[in-house]
Amino acid sequence: MALRRNGNSDSTPRAPRPVRKLSKRLDVARQLHDLEQDTALDIVDIERLRASVTRCLWLFLAVGSVFTTTGVQDFLAGDRSPADPVWWGCWGVEPCLVGILITILRWEAAMIARNIDIDSRAVDWLKRFLLGSTLVMNVVPALFPREGGISPGMLAAHFMVPILVFFLAEVMPIVQARCTQARRAITLTTKTPASAPASVPAPAPAPVTVPAGSIEPATPAQVPASAPVQVPASVPVPSPTSDVAAEPSPPALEGLGIPTGMQAQIRRLVADLDRPVTAVDIQQATRLPLSIAAQVVDRFTPATANGYAH
């Protein structure tokens, strides 16, 4: 019992409750701060934004396609009744046209994300044909209604909605491509350990004293036994950095919106090349847009000419 009382008396007193609660909040704040400094968080934010915007665009595109589908079906079905199979088949024409359009635009998004220009007239004419077909088949029934007169509101709706659907389909691949470019432009930085303290140079070794009797003289002259021979342990070598001029500092890449990790990657690329760096080299290594890669090359051109990279 005495030992137990002594053990309890020697234990550290527990901190007050407000101190414990504040300590936990500070620990959470420090962890959040460390996570916010990680560049991977930017990738997560971009991906969440892309998914949210794409979801909304798909919703509005589907609503607009339903409206244009009714106009196309009315134009194609004519006076047929639901008993005719053609009346039911007319409902599938507009989804087919919209599906082809979306497939073409998804392919364009993949090319835009890789900075590949699409200069084919066939692609442009195909998109215009799909838009024109949907637009004509929606506007004609509103201009020439089978019953009653022309309704200005329905005419405006059948004119605007097909164009709106087309531009929504055009915007969706651009959103996908730009989000992909932004995600690839982010370079994950690895945490480096704290820099070790500068090492103190070791003192020069003292000369070794060797007795005269243990060394055979090169000449027949006798060396007194009492006189020790001083043999230097090492020969001082001149520092190679004393006569070499300091290398110029690498050019700064601030102001271009390039992450720190990617800047280091670009400098390593310039240093490893045995020729002047080009915008294509920068773009292939970092997937930056061609305009930004050209600005990076402009900053490295004077440094390369002066002999920084080589």
Question: How is the secondary structure organized here?
Answer:
Elements: H1 2-10, H2 17-36, H3 40-77, H4 85-89, H5 93-113, H6 121-143, H7 152-184, E1 208-210, E2 229-231, H8 260-272, H9 279-286, H10 290-305
Antiparallel strand pairs: 1-2
Architecture overview:
The protein is an all-alpha fold and 310 residues long. It contains 10 helices and 2 strands; from the N terminus they run αααααααββααα. The termini are far apart. The relative contact order is 0.08. The C terminus is likely disordered.
Unreliable residue stretches: 190-202, 217-221, 223-227, 231-235, 237-247, 303-310
Helix and strand composition category: mainly alpha
The helicity comes to 55-70%
Mean pLDDT: 74
Dominant shape: flat
User: What does the largest sheet look like?
Assistant: 2 strands, antiparallel
Radius of gyration: 39 Å
Distance between the termini: 79 Å
| Percentage of residues in strands | under 5%
Q: How many E-type strands?
A: 2
Could you state the order of secondary-structure elements as H and E? HHHHHHHEEHHH
> How do the strands of the widest beta sheet line up side by side?
1-2
Compute the number of helices: 10
Descriptive tags:
310 residues, 10 helices, mainly alpha, DUF2637 domain-containing protein, disordered C terminus, 60% helix, two-stranded antiparallel ribbon
Question: TL;DR of this structure?
Answer:
By secondary structure, the protein is mostly helical. Helices cover 60% and strands 2% of the residues.
